[in-house]
Amino acid sequence: MGGILPLVSFGALVLASTTASTPTGSATTTTTKLCVQLQIPVHVVATNYHYDQPRVDSSIDAIDWTVNVTTWSSSNFTERITERVDVNKTFNIGAQLCVPSRKTSKAGILQIATPGLGFGKEYFDVKVDPQQYSYVDAAINKGYSVLSYDRLGTGASEKPDAYDDVQIPVEIEILAGLTKIARGGKLLSSSNASSAISNASAKFDFVPTKIVHIGHSFGSYINSLMLINYPDIIDGAIFTGLYPNSIEATNPLNVLNYNHAFAKESDPVRFAKYGSGYFVLDNEETLQKLFFQKATLDPALLTYADSIKQPEAIGEYSSEDDNPLAPAPNYKGPLMFFVGEFDNFICNGNCSGIYSEAFARQIYPGVGVDDLTYYLQPNTGHASMLSTNASAGYEVMLGFLDSRGL
């Protein structure tokens, strides 16, 4: 992809031009970003399982499910498997592709951003004071292209069965599928929206020169598991909200620590399309406890987090025990773990001094000594991209990629 990309509008498909604001500490120039909203069909073949667990059809059920799966003697979901579920389906995934309007040396490097539980793609493209908080804007200003997407069951993506469809093996294959589509230069042409294109001169599709994965929390977890079977599919990665440490494996927080409500009952209008098995973090207080640190908390961002929060599927939780973090020995690209210093979810509130080099090396033995690293974002909680020092963190992340030729 080179040159200046056209501003185009094709009926239902709109390629919008907006200004990417420059984060604090960056150069004073700004870059126009061109963004298009896509519906990308991704075919998935995966093995899921059906689990013996309560159904969630109300907020009372949501609390009952939480107590049930964290207090039973058989709380390990592997013990609750009742049958295998073979998935062979095509799922429609909502995504946003943004590219810089001017020619840059990095425009061919595509970053694919995967959000964590409780959020969709809006987590990466914050609309509150975007010059401070939008990761997409920060990346565009450095010349990158960015594909952010809604995981299955969230946002503009399809909302299938929350118990048997929306599980980790399926989400791994969706991420791998999106990456393969991007590698083949088919993001736009494979989208359901592409049928609206009639102007053959509009060259938006491109074959990326390199692909980098950016994940947050559960999104980072999915990324890491994907690298087990698809080690050569990307050129580098930054996993935020994921941190090999000496506490996580022995004293993790679980769903009993956070209040959930049945999505449709919590907001009947906003979550009208969500059925049984989808719940949502219930209010701003719960969001603060899970995602924020007071020292870097902007109340406007807490309200924003509540406005963009997305439901979580029961199957995402029940499939974790059968899909533990495991070695990806054949992945050899650079990798950074990026975590808030006071991440309540990952480190029980204090990540200082607990990074485990041995654990990291066990997972990624093929990564070079200088290419496997970590960074603690000062005074920050689990949602580092919603902290008041987010832009400083983006400088670290994008600087890491640049230093590795990405």
UniProtKB/TrEMBL annotation:
Residues 1-21 form the signal peptide. The keyword Glycoprotein does not apply. Residues 115-387 form the AB hydrolase-1 domain. It comes from the Eukaryota. Keywords: Signal. It comes from Trichoderma harzianum CBS 226.95. This is AB hydrolase-1 domain-containing protein. The lineage of its organism: Eukaryota, Fungi, Dikarya, Ascomycota, Pezizomycotina. Coiled coil: none annotated. The keyword Signal applies.
